[in-house]
Amino acid sequence: MCGIVGYVGKGLAIPIVLDSLKRLEYRGYDSAGVAFCEGQSVFRERRAGKLIVLSEALKNRMISSGCAIGHTRWATHGAPNVYNAHPQNDTSSNIFVVHNGIIENFAELRDDLIDKGVVFSSQTDTEVIAQLLAIELLGKIHTYQNVVRAISTVIKKLRGSFALAILVKELDYIFAVKRSSPLIVGEKNGECFLASDIPAILPYTDKILHIKDDEIVVLCTGKIRVYDNNLKQRKLLFRKVNTKMQEIMLGSFESFMQKEIFEGAKATIDTVERLQHFDVCSQLDKTRFDGDFDLHIAACGTALHAGRIAKLLIEKYLRLPVDIDYASEFRYSYPILSDKSICIFISQSGETADTLASLDLAKSLGAYTIGITNVASSKLAGEVDVNIPTSAGVELAVASTKAYLAQLGAIYCLVVSIAKLLHKSLDLDINVLLEIVRQNGDMTYCRDWETLLPDLSELDSLFFVGRGVDYYLAMEGALKVKEISYIHCEAMPAGELKHGSLALITPQSYVVVLLTQAELMEKTINAIHEMQSRGAKIILITTKDVQIDVTHIIKLPAVPDAYSPFIAIRPMQELAYMLAKHNGYDPDKPRNLAKSVTVE
Ligand code: F6R
After folding, report:
1. Is 595 annotated as catalytic?
2. Where in the chain are the domains?
3. 0.85 exceeded by the pTM?
4. Which residues have C-beta within 8 Å of that of residue 188, sequence separation ≥ 6?
5. Nearest CA to ligand 1 atom 5
6. Is residue 355 lining ligand 1, measured as CB closer than 6 Å?
7. What is the spatial distance between Cα 88 and Cα 120, in angstroms, rounded to a whole number?
8. Which of the following CATH numbers is that of domain 253-441: 3.40.50.300, 3.20.20.210, 3.40.50.10490, 3.40.630.30?
């Protein structure tokens, strides 16, 4: 869950590496570091904390190097201090490694090295790689061929996931290799780039090559070589990426989260329109929907919340039972899967470790797998039987906003397509959905929150309550607010209050209540009364004309109930954003979190 970059060329490497790292900070920001070649030596700078701390430290240094690697870290092994920051090196400081991923057998490799007399200076799994490489290169001249062979030997000893970029003393080359962690290289006019993700290097090149597992890459000025696992050089087919620069620039926005909230309607419309052309129904394997089959959904976080709405739609409209679980539970819950199973995996990044492990499990048991992902080049997109792409564009803020809406768009298209496949008529219309989002998706509720912020920002706990689809929306609202404002938030099903949670309600409590479903209106209003009689202050978010005395009402456009999720999530995303700002937190980089959770 870290970000790695590399540059080699005629330019100054350090400014390019630092600039590229900025666009990878969403992958982690516990510490940052660079290593660069100068003369025959490799030098390193690293700092605990965000990239800005490292950039400040390097500000007045004149570094003429044209070859450097960089890293921004989300700590897995070892505290987020300077010693565990990357690049990690071997004891003789001949080899410097930046790493994204996790080496599962690092403890046994480390013990083995300690037995051989190696002294470690960090708690990271990455240092093991540097030390192993040093042993492989011991007594050998540092030629790029020798380094490639050493990397090939070392990676055979590693279990887990990695994308590595490596500098070796005396060589103006960057060596890189990956397994189950993303890695791309790019080229322009003889300058070569390497990164975990396209946005990092997009300002410099749009000519990109995806590296496959266990391939070893060697970058030097004017040349990129890629070797397969038999060390045979392969032909390079670069492709032009479609991502536009403005997608990764802030423009007039204060933060990426703010920008991405504003892009929510566009993300939905782009997704749905694209899927209309893609024709989801024709992509599905009809034979898998013949006779008996069972449906399952696995995902994490926000993607799971979108999945809960998928479950509700499939059960309500198609009358098919759906099993749903956190991907981290699904993979360990002995799911009953077979070649009669259809499993849907939802993931913005397509990189989430638990979701990928659940996919592997489902495939090994013969299930038909459907992915909903935003990153076309991701592992998930490549490995499912059919991938339904979302078109949210690049999402950089850690808290997912527009990708959630795009996922909802894809889910509605999928449900309509399954209905078509099963010859079931359905009370859902994709064109109506599009019209509703076009007309109402851009409405903002910032003014509603402004007056409430001083009180809300002081709270220890904030509750979100709803029933049915409103409960699933409440879950996503609670997640959004807690992850960037650090206020404890809890989503509660309205009907469950009196079975326990009501005990938490006091005259100091604020409760955000969602009400968008006519059939549940009375019940939700009863829940409001129950909470009010314990003194709670209610903020009601509703599409309905309700005559009820509450602390504040956020009136949403009166859209048909089936499409309310597309409208009702926005005020909660704005609340989360405004609370974070009000309390002085960076909404794009919440503490302890990173966007792509590529470790278990
Ligand atoms: C919350 C958030 C996370 C992700 C989760 C899954 O705002 O962004 O909960 O939704 O980590 O990530 P993906 O969708 O990339 O699998």
Report:
1. yes
2. 3-247, 253-441, 443-585
3. yes
4. 204, 205, 207
5. 301
6. yes
7. 10
8. 3.40.50.10490
